[in-house]
Amino acid sequence: MKKDLEMKRFLFSLETLLSLRKEREQECEIVLAIAAGKLAVIDNRIEAARLAGDNAFMAGGVTIEELRARDRLWMKSVSDCKALEQPRIEASMKVDDARNVYTEAHSQRAALDKIREKRMDQWKLKVKQEEIKKLDETAKGATVRRRLTGGDE
């Protein structure tokens, strides 16, 4: 009797696959974060080189040596920016690739989550229907007992 009153636990047959997909999604998220971090470092280096060039260009110089030093600093900043163009393109491509892989992993996990939710809703409905059925049977049994005993109890 006690076993009849206990509610059965919800078991999702694809729970293992769902947990694997969650782990995969987390791994892809980490890879994406690392790639985005590397791109941000390159962008910061480019910005620092541009800023150094702008500062050098804005620095006033009166003598020929000061003007040459300013030109060297400005040319170095331009050179540094050009040297970082290819690494930035590669890093950007890695971010795009990692984002695509993450998006795919996320959608696969989300699809399984939706299936799990639907099955849980079906399970809840079934449990509720079983409880109603048991209550109906109990109520009918009480009515029959009252009739058999011939009185109101």
Write up this protein.
- This protein has 153 residues and is mainly alpha-helical.
- It has a domain at 18-112.
- Helix content is 88%, strand content 0%.
- The chain has three helices and no strands.
- The protein has helices at 2-5, 15-58, 64-149.
- Helix 2 runs antiparallel to helix 3.
- The longest helix has 86 residues, at 64-149.
- The radius of gyration is 35 Å and the shape is rod-shaped.
- The chain starts with a helix and ends with a helix.
- 8% of the residues are buried.
- The mean pLDDT is 87.
Shape: rod-shaped
Percentage of residues assigned to helices: over 70%
Distance linking N and C termini: 22 Å
Low-confidence stretches: none
- What class, by secondary structure content? mainly alpha
- CA-atom Rg in angstroms: 35 Å
Please, how many helices?
3
Largest sheet: none
Count of β-strands: 0
Percentage of residues in strands: under 5%
Key terms:
rod-shaped; 153 residues; mainly alpha; 88% helix
How would you summarize the topology of this molecule?
Elements: H1 2-5, H2 15-58, H3 64-149
Summed up:
With 153 residues, the protein is an all-alpha fold.
